[in-house]
């Protein structure tokens, strides 16, 4: 079973640039919202994870831009758990313009789980269980 | 004597919006850079202040926009210490387009000094001395 | 009758800073969303306004910060039409943390209506009618 | 000969997040500054390019994060022209913390040249000449 989740976002003026399209870096912010809400949909509140001294920073990020998003567009951000290793997690994202579901951007992020000391640690079992389909 | 400092910033694509001008909220980021560098010019490294458990958050912010800044404009951000109370500091900022020194934006921020507990505290004497003309 | 509108936003990692609270400039982005959605709730799509060659840039912005917002907080942003002059509009905003409705931030923005030439113009009657209670 | 350029940036409060490090998406903004200044160092003012109706949007972006950048760090952003195709350009970036030149982030962006109609076009000869070592 695929672990995935969808959220909707509205393009704000702040997200756009002089080319009158969404600035490329801002898609990564939507990827963040997508991950956080995918986790929430599995019963994982990332804020609570951090309160336990566990952090899941990004170690790799990638995006391919197919078509621009513009001010006031309503977008669907789909996030999928792609892979879980011993200490790492990979998410994939797609951003579509609604209502026609035109694919605008595809990307992914790789994360490692680290403790308060900043050192890599195995994904806690409770988290792994929540993210297993 | 006026305690003031000037920095130059270059408008990036990321700073602009669909109106092809700098997004209004982003001027406040330049105000931040202006304050940090004014402090540095007086021998105060804000990072070190925080390392001592002292924080100087913004409690009020205000800006008036006279003329737009555009991508690739080179700007001068002038920051002035306007007032120092027992527990608060006020900075004023002006943003000019170079080289003609056209005034684009004027603003100010009010800050309070707080300790690690988040409670307001008097401005430390060492800091006050550095900021006195 | 008061013309006002409420939206909910979730604080993202991207919105926060090293003080572990929302960066002060980012409240102005939520003010933007509040205004855009207030307009939409009155049948005014700001994107369509711009497509007609009418722009409503910010000429003044102000905020007072009472209490910090933190990562993952759910916030309510209330936006109110405060005043309409011949060529200007003023909005007021309040940001509350949900569910307890603690007031975190209060602010306002003043806008002028300008045409494609960047020159100030009277608020179009159709827009004025939509915004009249 | 390698076409490359270096700029320095100072980490601002606005760039950081609740993990007390620079938010991952913000490195892409420094990549932008790096590209723009590499072009300028070769006599190409990107703003002038756009004024001629030629745009060079990002179609792919990628970054690997090795070590965090923190508030007030002074960084060196190195940008290198990696490849020029008929219609595309690839830049590589590295971000180092000064003064120790610790490598924090490596990334790249791929761009296509498009005209006002948004359609891909060959890189203009004048631009190609400027970017040739």
Major sheet: arrangement of strands of chain A = 1-3-4-5-2
Annotation, overall tally of beta strands of chain A? 5
N-C termini distance of chain A: 5 Å
Average pLDDT of chain A works out at 97
The backbone outline of chain A, from C-alpha atoms, is elongated
CATH class of chain A: Alpha Beta
Q: How large is the radius of gyration of chain A?
A: 16 Å
- Assign the CATH superfamily of chain A: Hotdog Thioesterase
What oligomeric state do these chains adopt? homotetramer
Which structural class do you get from the secondary structure elements of chain A?
Answer: alpha+beta
Strand content of chain A: 35-45%
> Tell me about the biggest sheet of chain A?
5 strands, antiparallel
Instruction: State the helix count of chain A.
Output: 3
- Compute the number of structural domains of chain A: 1
Predict the CATH topology of chain A: Thiol Ester Dehydrase, Chain A
- Share of helix among residues of chain A? 10-25%
């Amino acid at each position: 079973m695929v672990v995935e989740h969808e959220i909707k976002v509205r393009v704000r003026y702040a997200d756009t640039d002089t080319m009158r399209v969404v600035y490329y870096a801002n898609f990564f912010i939507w990827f963040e919202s997508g991950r956080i809400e995918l986790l929430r949909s599995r019963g994982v509140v990332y804020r609570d994870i951090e309160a336990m001294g566990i952090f899941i920073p990004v170690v790799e990020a990638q995006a391919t831009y197919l078509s621009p998003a513009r001010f006031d567009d309503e977008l669907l951000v789909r996030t999928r758990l792609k892979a879980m290793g011993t200490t790492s997690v990979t998410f994939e994202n797609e951003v579509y313009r609604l209502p026609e579901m035109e694919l605008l951007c595809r990307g992914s992020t790789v994360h490692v789980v680290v403790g308060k000391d900043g050192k890599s640690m195995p994904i806690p079992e409770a988290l792994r269980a929540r993210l297993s389909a």
